[in-house]
Each structure stands twice: as C-alpha cells, then as structure tokens.
Amino acid sequence: MQQLPYAPQGLRVGLLGGSFDPPHAGHLHISTWALKEFGLDQVWWLVSPGNPLKKHGPANLEKRMAACQALVQHPKIKVTDIEMRLGTRYTAETLEKLLKLYGGVRFVWLMGADNLVSFHKWDRWDQIMETVPIGVLARPEEQVMAGCSPAARRYARFRLSSRRSTALPFRQAPCWALLNGPMMNISSSDIRKRGEW
Fold first, then answer.
1. What does DSSP assign to residue 102?
2. For residue 57, is pLDDT > 80?
3. Which of 53, 69, 97, 158 is least surrounded by Cβ atoms within 10 Å, i.e. has the fewest?
C-alpha cells in the first residue's frame, strides 16, 4: 500500500476513479487534458478495489497498481490506492472522507462522458454532484447521450461553459463542465476482450 498523497491547502486536484483494469493511453490522455483544461495542479488516479456496478471483479489490486505506475511518467499524475486505504467502496463515501482529510484542497471529480450517461445509477449520485465540481471529458460516440443524461438534465443550469473550464476548481458545487476535443478510441474492456491483459 502507498502513503496518502500530500496536498496543501489550495491545491487543485482532479480525482479520476476507476478499476484501471487495465490502465491504458486513454486514461493518460484524459488526465493530461484535464490538467490543462481545468487548470489542475495534479490528477490522482483512485485505483478502486472493485466496481459495485460491475458483475465481475477486476484483476488483483496490486497488479493494477503496478501497471498504472509503469504507465504513468507524468509528474502531476499520482497513482493511489486511496479507496483501499480509506476502506471505501462508493464514490460518495470516498469524497466524504477525502474532504475531511484534506481541508482546503480544491477537488474536482473527473469522469468520461460514458460515465455521465449512467451517473444516475451510482450510489448517492446527486450527493456527489452537490459535493464537488465535476469535470466530464469526451469519449467517442458518447457526447450526445451524455448531454441528454438524467444527471445532465437535472443539473443543466449548473453547467459551466467549456471556454470557462479553468474556473471549475474554484466553483462551488453543484457545478460541472463537459469538454469536447480530441479523443482516443480505446477501452479497458476492449483490451481484455483481445486477451491482452
């Protein structure tokens, strides 16, 4: 297990949660994109022990952590096992504990547009939306569905325009932004299907 990352007050940190089963260039792409477009100081990968919405568990956590650390060479992207260390399983729970541990840190929850489509199925999803700003990044063929999703419709008036996206970490929740731009058509499930993991 790793130590919890150091983060002084005022640091702008993007949180990218997921099973990373396996991690790939697409994860790096959206992380570096988020750093730039949302004006973040760091992005933390929250490599989860398991995904409550998936029937089958991911590969061993140590294997996934090692693969993430081998892939990440960017000084502002930190690979963490925070959820394992905090004993949390759901995002809402993880955020509650992180906000207590890191008072004064400006967290932004990051997700791909495909996750926004099904966000309303997450445990306490509306609480997540009202706890931290959310940065949504384009995924191939998911933009229209993301913009029409139940979460997007319910919180439509809190959407920040993409040209003001660097203000996201300074906004009070609920606030969210959806970025469109260059995408990578790669997914962990496709890698697993090809037997490359």
1. S
2. no
3. 53
